[in-house]
């Protein structure tokens, strides 16, 4: 006899899609990975069966509509959606966690729609812009993104506080680590030791532990590197002043475009308790030193000329440049990636 799964060794979705139009299939995703896909019958019905030894955050997609579910073995779900309805409204039963996350699903859908519209708008406006104009446009769009994601973060935190279970966890797991670092680190501390049998929870806890080392409020890891004159410099040498640790390179266009703003802030606040440590990801000493001179970077510059192979790249988990950390006089991280008007506003508020 062939082996078979019992109802308790898999989950089942018995679904119906109304007004499917030209949509003939539904697909099941975990993050961006497609797990399964099935055809709709003539009545728009489908059945999906999978195994999930622990609750997993999944997305059911029909046409352009996405529906968020939390499923585990033993769940027998009844699902219905109308593709002609406004928004991503749907009906679900048979999975208590899915029924809970449904209350947050419209908030997730609004976030995803905002991101898609923002990306489309940026692409249309960015066409044929020169580098400087493109940088300014990107900064404008990043401000819009961060503002919207702050509201979304607040909504997710409220939901997680109201639902102290895996539904709350999955809402938090949709947050952007760049925007919601403080909230995510605090949440990881709160749930430590719970749901240890859940792979996604364990991965989240591990990731937040790595993130916490470089989180706002943490002491910046010390490191040592060399100036163009081969003088050894430590980050801890800069204690006593607000210090911008600026990761850049001569070959990085956005870095070079931001340099005039950093020069301006340096001259405005260098006598008020502010300084800068430039950390270059160059591998060519000539290019590095020419860029320092051409851009008027008068503050201390260091590099081991190992580009992405530099130890400090791994220490600070640098994935792209420009990246910056702003430290208080005790060496505590107080802000990240402040550029343009944001850096000016922070220094004005703090040092004027």
TrEMBL record:
UniProt entry keywords in alphabetical sequence: Cytochrome c-type biogenesis, Disulfide bond, Redox-active center
Intracellular or extracellular location(s): Cell envelope
Pfam families in the record: AhpC-TSA, DUF4369
Domain Thioredoxin, first and last residues per copy: 214-352
InterPro entries: AhpC/TSA (IPR000866), DUF4369 (IPR025380), Thioredoxin-like_sf (IPR036249), Thioredoxin_CS (IPR017937), Thioredoxin_domain (IPR013766), Thioredoxin_ResA/DsbE_sf (IPR050553)
Origin: domain of life: Bacteria
Protein name per the record: Thiol:disulfide interchange protein
Annotated organism of origin: Parapedobacter defluvii
